[in-house]
């Protein structure tokens, strides 16, 4: 393990947003910034998502739970609107969708890959 702290810093202000692409999932209007990539899991457990106004992510399950912090704007989960500064913890097995009518930027910590529910 490296002891250089710089090996563990992500400069998110200089990292470009990339279109979120997931096979068989409509992610139009959603962009991602990966903050931490887990080589063992081959996925990012910590990332930011930016939703353009009207964008949504489909109903899904969180086998390992999740943590979400609204950085900017607002989003709606299960009929409840969250605003900048609001924090959400969901336990393992919690299911929901996400949409934003106004646009938003969200910080996520998701320890396990989500499962889309059709």
Can you walk me through this structure?
This protein is an all-beta fold and 118 residues long. It has one domain (5-116): Jelly Rolls (Sandwich), CATH 2.60.120.10. 0% of the residues lie in helices and 52% in strands. It has no helices and ten strands. It has strands spanning 18-19, 30-38, 43-51, 56-62, 66-77, 80-83, 87-90, 94-99, 104-109, 115-116. Strands 1, 2, 3, 5, 6, 7 and 9 form a seven-stranded antiparallel beta sheet that branches. The radius of gyration is 14 Å and the shape is globular. The N and C termini lie far apart (41 Å). The mean pLDDT is 96.
Show the helix and strand layout.
Layout: E1 18-19, E2 30-38, E3 43-51, E4 56-62, E5 66-77, E6 80-83, E7 87-90, E8 94-99, E9 104-109, E10 115-116
Antiparallel strand pairs: 1-2, 2-3, 3-9, 4-8, 4-10, 5-6, 5-7, 5-9
Number of strands: 10
Low-confidence parts lasting 5 or more residues at pLDDT below 50? none
Beta strand %: over 45%
Identify the CATH class. Answer: Mainly Beta
**How is the main sheet built?**
7 strands, antiparallel
CATH architecture level-2 label: Sandwich
The topology string of helices and strands comes to EEEEEEEEEE
Helicity, in percent? under 10%
Structural class: mainly beta
